[in-house]
Specification:
This protein is an alpha+beta fold. The chain has 15 helices and 19 strands. It has a 7-stranded mixed sheet with strand order 14-16-11-17-15-18-19, sandwiched between helices.
């Protein structure tokens, strides 16, 4: 390759590091340990010039500042797309009080966004170098130990194109929040993020507006949650016959577990363990303070119309994503890291797509995956006023479900209180195989956990095979 090709090639799997002078050998040894190549190619020098040599001959010399800071900047037109004027007729209509929601719940579990992805992930090597501590589906984040140390890394990716279509800035903030929440629910402290930003043509003013709004949302969330963006990429021109994809920022979050033995998974463990709902919102006033970020005040129906349940059961994609409280997200994440370090809980799973009902079910499904012969399920009673579907399937963040031994409940409640997180006992883990959710004492979801799991575990494979057959 010519020097020009070497300097400007966009070939992948390369990284440039700046090491402390005199410690280059240590860096090279780290790469060698992992079977990677690393060589010293230059040094930082005074003078403000970038100088490239090939076999001792200068082949390029340019001032560094304009190269790094004065590149061309596109000033593409931006314009917010005209919003459709929505009324209550456009939003989800909640079911009548007392309706049994089991059938709707099954439909939700079968939706591609929520159904198990194991049929896909099991076709790949998820145990590379035997370092994986939490495989796909076992927890909210993948956890990989660092051999030779007691530490582990937790990694999660998240993105909701539907929310970003409805509100790009708010949707992007939710992507960062959920990725960080997933990492924290594995017991790790989120420390950094990366991104893959996917959009239609930037030549369209509305797409450039979406892009700008997403960047502003990522900035706000990453600053608040302490997850700086370390790198990423942007993919534009994702269109079919002139129609753009939803703006879809996919956020990857990295966390560190100081002790790999503290890793948390989502599976309910023991019969008679207490099921606890954690909520980062400290009090009702916290729902309306300046930390709560949303473009416009929303009604319950308007917010719920952006949910996966609304899309799957009602065929409605409308309204606004849930407002977000980044301070509450941070409190919950700090609480989860503290609970893991204190080894106070047996399982943890954040509330996101599908809401509380899906979170509880997935904790049961994970237990079945780990121990196929068991009949782990849960009996839960929610004491709350409002529409049942919103309570069970609403997707507001800053919440998680944990399970804890009865004799450890007091310690959990105390730690949550010290972190400013509300904690409510909502049920218990059972061994009778019946998944039951009651609202104010009345059962609104009740089904054999094995039947629910079958729907969740195999619907994606069945749908794909049906497409192939047809």
């Amino acid at each position: 390759m010519t020097p020009y090709e070497i300097m400007l090639s966009e070939s992948q799997e390369r990284m440039l590091l700046v090491a402390e002078k005199g410690r280059e050998g240590e860096v090279v040894q780290v790469f060698k340990k992992w079977g990677l190549d690393a060589v010293v190619v230059g040094e930082v020098a005074d003078g403000g010039l970038l100088r490239v040599k090939d076999r001792g001959k200068i082949v390029a010399e340019i001032p560094a500042h304009p190269l790094a800071e004065e590149g061309p900047v596109y000033q593409r037109p931006m314009a917010e797309p005209k919003r459709k004027t929505e009324t209550a007729a456009d939003w989800f209509a909640f079911a009548s009080e007392g309706k049994n929601l089991t059938d709707n719940f099954k439909r939700l579990l079968a939706s591609p966004a929520i159904a198990s992805k194991r049929w896909i992930t099991e076709q790949y090597d998820t145990m590379v170098r035997t370092n994986t501590l939490a495989v796909p589906g076992a927890g909210d984040a993948a956890v990989v130990r660092i051999k030779g140390t007691v530490r582990a890394l937790a990694l999660s990716t998240d993105g909701n194109g539907r929310w970003c279509q409805l509100n790009p800035r708010l949707g992007a903030m939710h992507a960062v929040a959920e990725g960080s929440r997933n990492v924290a629910c594995s017991g790790a402290r989120p420390i950094a993020a990366t991104n893959c930003l996917n959009f239609g043509s930037p030549e369209k003013p509305e797409v450039m507006w979406q892009f700008s709004e997403v960047i502003d949302g990522l900035t706000a969330a990453c600053n608040e949650l302490g997850t700086p963006i370390t790198g990423g990429n942007v993919s534009f021109y994702n269109e079919t016959l002139g129609s753009s994809i939803y703006p879809t920022p996919v956020i990857g979050v990295l966390g560190v577990l100081d002790d790999a033995t503290n890793v948390l998974k989502m599976a309910f463990r023991n019969e008679d363990d207490v099921v606890v709902l954690l909520d980062g919102l400290e009090a009702s006033a916290d729902r309306t303070d300046n930390a709560l970020i949303g473009e416009i005040p929303t009604t319950q129906a308007q917010e719920f119309s952006s949910s996966e349940y609304s899309k799957t059961v009602g065929g409605i994609v409308a309204g606004e994503p849930p407002a977000i409280n980044l301070a509450a997200e941070k409190r919950l994440q700090d609480c989860m890291v503290g609970l893991a370090a204190a080894r106070l809980v047996h399982s943890a799973h954040d509330i996101s797509d599908g809401g509380l009902a899906v979170t509880l079910a997935e904790c049961c499904f994970a237990a079945k995956s780990e121990t196929p012969g068991n009949n782990v399920a849960a009996h839960v009673n929610i004491e709350e006023s409002g529409a049942a579907e919103a309570i069970l399937f609403g997707e507001r963040g800053a919440r998680a479900v944990i399970s804890v031994a009865p004799n450890g409940l007091a310690s959990v409640l105390d730690l949550a209180r010290r972190h400013g997180v509300t904690a409510h006992q909502i049920g218990r883990v059972t061994g009778d195989g019946i998944f039951r959710i009651q609202l104010n004492g009345s059962a609104i979801i009740e089904e054999c956990a094995a039947a629910l799991r079958d729907t969740w575990a195999h619907s994606l494979e069945r749908a794909v095979r049906q497409i192939v057959v047809n």
